[in-house]
Amino acid sequence: MIKFEHIGLRYGIGPEILSDINFTLDPGSFHFLSGPSGSGKTSLMSLLYLGRKPTRGMITMFGQSTGSLSRAQLAAQRRRIGVVFQDFRLLTHMSAFDNVALPLRIAGKNEKEIRSNVDELLDWVGLGDAKRALPNTLSGGQQQRIAIARAVITRPRLLLADEPTGNLDDEIGMRLMNLFDQLNRMGTTVVIATHNQHIMETFKHPRLMLDQGKLHIEESGGELRKKLEGVF
User: Fold this and answer.
1) Strand order in 224-228's β-sheet?
2) Are 130 and 96 in contact (CB under 8 A)?
3) Dist. CA 203–CA 201, nearest whole Å
4) Helix runs in 31-95, H state only
5) Are the C-beta atoms of residues 84 and 164 closer than 8 Å to each other?
6) What's the pLDDT tens digit per position in 130-171?
């Protein structure tokens, strides 16, 4: 589904933030993305959701090289991706229900289907009683759950989440991780950036480990599978 080949990324004329990044994500895989602060996790996520182009190298996504896509083709690719941003990016003038419903409305779904799907998902994330509330009247953890519901409502082919359980209590965090696992079992490819060791140890998925702009991959048991520092 996704292939990074000798990817480098720098901002302006500064040093590379990411250097010789090489990996493949198979359809239906589930990976954690981890590493110390400043290691390049946010930059790598921005490349994965097509929010930024690499300085060098080639990214192939859904069978197409992203470097040759038009603006309209890039927009079509992004519609296959669900993203949970760390700053949530909710529309503050819209209710929790309407924020979650937005991707379905953009996709042209009918209102009866939208209402059924959104109500069910808001109940699942524990916000069934807050569906008419505006985001700025809710806590950070509640806003985070709205952002997660919006990202998964269309059952995207690729789900990217940046610290999705960071503002949540353990019970809600584990419920959402089970939701991600369920989506993955249904075929969605999942990448979750997290520092939460408990979650990574509970859910035995491989880890993309970043350190100083370099990447290596660890299997779920913690065994180093392949170090990728310029050799694919």
Assistant:
1) 81-84, 158-162, 189-193, 30-34, 207-211, 214-218, 224-228
2) yes
3) 6
4) 41-48, 71-78
5) yes
6) 999 999 999 888 998 899 899 999 889 999 998 888 777 888
